[in-house]
Specification:
By secondary structure, the protein is of the alpha/beta class. It has 3 domains: about 5-110, Beta Barrel (Elongation Factor Tu (Ef-tu), domain 3); about 125-250, Rossmann fold (3-Layer(aba) Sandwich); about 265-345, Roll (Ubiquitin-like (UB roll)). Helices cover about 20% and strands about 30% of the residues. It has helices at about 90-100, 135-145, 170-175, 205-210, 225-235, 285-290, 325-330; strands at about 15-25, 30-40, 50-60, 60-70, 80-85, 105-110, 125-130, 150-160, 180-185, 215-220, 245-250, 265-270, 275-280, 310-320, 335, 340-345. Strand 12 and strand 13 (about 275-280) form a beta hairpin. About 40% of the residues are buried.
Length: about 350
């Protein structure tokens, strides 16, 4: 397959993305794989460990845009590696898993994100992850190794079984060459061969694994449910909230505002003059599509910020992943892909 065959034809992000080609692929587990990319123009990638990129590609006439964190370190900037879980209900990740190989092309955005050690004063750290949530943390660990930095670091990876552990051999090797790195694995569905701390990670187990937790700065990444539970444990173990940094693999829970009985949600597009009724699960983006109003979108996860629109009246529930800055929020902007109207709302479109 040639590069041209699966590069996105929509150039709306030109200037902020880079045409790139897949130069390597590794099957990590039965449903997790790593793709390595290099820029076609021969330039290096610019990012700090822990950040994410958006990739765009076309397949069978359809354009896909998805967000993935970078697993490789910026100390090796000639290529980036993205470690991806092929979700059973995820069309884009299944295409990448089943069909992408060396020579396939994508567009890769500039890196973004603040889930990083970079720029922070940290003396002792705790990395806590589940599933593919390990990817930004691996970028940080690899960077520490390459730079020869000796951070007192405990990394705990939560996996279903031993066959689901990611980067196990590499972490074992790194722990031998990094005296202050300690790696622990907890299995939620252990087999008879998995004798290493069976059962889901709870507060008591976490306290045993990290007796000095209150002295550490925590970086936590994984599914939203895992994140919520771990945050509670860390707070109870004495880590202040301002020393807990999170990167969720999924949208943040929306607020619980409900439409009053008998009240209909209506979205008014002020400049276009259209009014669209909505139920409680319909997003502003859905309403715009119904009205024939185009809103540029990309990740549709509330992370990239592409579908930002201004709310001029009313309230919405927004289950985003941090795609808006504090200034945007104060100025009344919302993300159309993950905002649901509560009552009568109006947007500047």
């Amino acid at each position: 397959m040639s590069v041209a065959q699966n590069l996105a034809s929509d150039r709306s992000v030109s200037g902020t993305s880079h045409l790139s080609i897949c130069t390597g692929r590794v099957q990590e587990t039965h449903d997790v794989f790593t793709l390595a990319f290099e820029r076609i123009d021969g330039q290096t990638f610019n990012f700090v460990p822990g950040q994410f990129v958006m990739i765009r590609f076309s397949w069978d006439g359809q354009i896909f845009s998805r967000i993935f964190t970078i697993a490789s370190p910026p100390t090796r900037p000639e290529r980036i590696s993205l470690t991806i879980k092929a979700a059973t209900d995820g069309k884009a990740t299944r295409i990448l898993h089943d069909h992408f190989h060396e020579g396939c092309g994508v567009e890769i955005s500039e890196a973004r994100g603040e889930f990083t050690l970079h720029g922070r004063t940290v003396e002792k750290a705790l990395f806590l992850c589940a599933g593919s949530g390990i990817t930004p943390l691996m970028s940080m660990v690899r960077t520490l190794h390459d730079l020869g930095e000796e951070l007192d670091l405990c990394l705990i990876q939560c996996s279903r079984t031993a066959s689901d552990v990611l980067f196990g051999q590499e972490l074992a090797m790194l722990s031998r060459s990094m005296p202050k790195l300690r790696v622990e694995t907890v299995f939620s569905r252990p087999s008879d061969l998995d004798s290493n701390r069976p059962g889901r990670l709870n507060k008591s187990q976490l306290a045993l694994l990290v007796p000095d937790a209150s002295d550490r700065t925590a970086f936590v990444c994984g599914p939203t449910g895992f994140m919520a539970v771990m945050r509670g444990h860390l707070l109870e173990l004495g880590i202040p909230a301002d020393r807990i940094f999170e990167e969720a693999f999924g949208p943040r829970p929306a607020t619980t505002t409900k439409i009053s009985a008998g009240e209909k949600a209506v979205v008014s597009f002020e400049r276009s003059g259209f009014h669209v009724e909505a139920d409680e699960d319909t997003t502003i983006l859905n309403c715009a599509e119904t009205a024939g109003i185009h809103i540029e979108t990309a990740c549709q996860m509330g992370l990239c910020g592409t579908c930002k629109v201004k709310l001029t009246r009313g309230e919405v529930d927004m289950s985003d992943m941090g795609g808006l800055s504090e200034v945007d929020c104060k100025d009344g902007f919302i993300l159309a892909c993950c905002s649901r109207p509560r009552g009568h709302v109006a947007v500047d479109l």
